[in-house]
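ugh ok so i messed up the first submission bc i forgot one of the chains. this is the corrected input, ALL of the components this time, i swear. 409 residues overall. if the numbers dont match what u have on ur side tell me asap before i send this to the collaborators (the ones from the other lab, u know who)
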Amino acid sequence: MATINANFNKLASGYLFPEIARRTAQWQKRNPGIPVMRLGIGNTTEPLPPAVRRAMKEKIDKLGDRTTYTGYGDEQGDTYLREAMVKYYQRWGIALEPTEFFISDGAKSDAANIQQIFGPDNIVAIQDPAYPVYVDSNVVGGRSGAYNSERGQYDGFVYLSTSEEGGFIPTPPEEKVDLIYLCNPNNPTGAVANHAQVKAFVDYAIANKAVIIYDSAYSEYITEEGFPRSIYEVEGAKRCAIEISSFSKFSGFTGVRLGWTIVPHELECEDGAAGVLNGLWNRRQCTFFNGASNVSQSGAYAALFGKGYEESRALVEYYLGNAKIIRDGLTSLGLTVYGGTNSPYIWAKTPNNMDSWAFFDLLLERCHVVVTPGGGFGPAGKHYVRFSSYGHREDVEQAMKSVKENAGI
Ligand SMILES: *Cc1c(COP(=O)(O)O)cnc(C)c1O
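and heres the new structure output, hopefully the right one now
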């Protein structure tokens, strides 16, 4: 008699984006022919850098010739790319080894899978609000209790609540936790923790033999000094942190797919000496993963240096330009906004303490603009909405024009 993994029944999410889609579809039915403008989506819109496309085309031609064709590559990623990743990190003064890099098909799956190498009894700490996969993967992994719909949170997790007063940067918990998920620059708040704020977590993790899972998917959006691009800029982080990142938001790889995870040789935990966790992740990948696409890896390599890097940087600057338009527009309406300078996301406080879903409805009704209600990312987001800068410039301008003219706030 087969039974299901009942942990899936505990999952409360899968609510946010379907609910946005439902409300948007309903509005469209009531307003046929009127286009909706989307400022809610975390998906890239601008074309792949030319150098990346060239590299991928060359690789495809090699695959089309029996003398240069290759099949399965290494599960950990091709050596040339792992060596290039080492050089990429040297830019920020970080010394890593190729064997500490694990190339993957993206950061989301790594963020979901990484919990598999940790015991089921680990106490998990998650930022509130948070990118949902950190929460959901640990629910499925059996580390939570039931979902408490009144609180909008799961029993058994430790939530690191963030607020306006603290600039939406969490501080380490009072109690002892074992796994800590941090996303910096943050999705959804757009906040970016400085060196000292990240160091507080590194110090906590070392003192408590905890492990930090650090998602740096937006690190290329950091344009100001004083913010670490990688957790390994912080002294001691190799002993206590795994970093997960991606080419998706940096170089337009959301559809192409490529990411990486760094598990340092020095990383240790309560019952795992240095080297054990690196070995376990290697074991996990070799057992359950057959390597990332070789075409994607060629494109990613081209994005790391020279022309490909310049063109990728220009993509990031384009989205940051959109972010500025959104920020300035909302500020001119008198709204309080956060993020959008070292991040593609703008976290806007709702007017008059309005609920985030009510403000979502208002922007849809009056301005025909779709945003993401902050409450969907956790209770700390209840009075905020997330504006995303992913979109064509002219669409972002048009949407913001409508917000400025029609919001009536
Ligand atoms: C978009 C995003 C990613 C990227 O995921 P991929 O699977 O590499 O596309 C990772 N983390 C966060 C927080 C994101 O918003």
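quick check: Residues 51 and 375 are 40 Å apart (CA to CA). that seems consistent at least. The longest strand covers residues 241-246.
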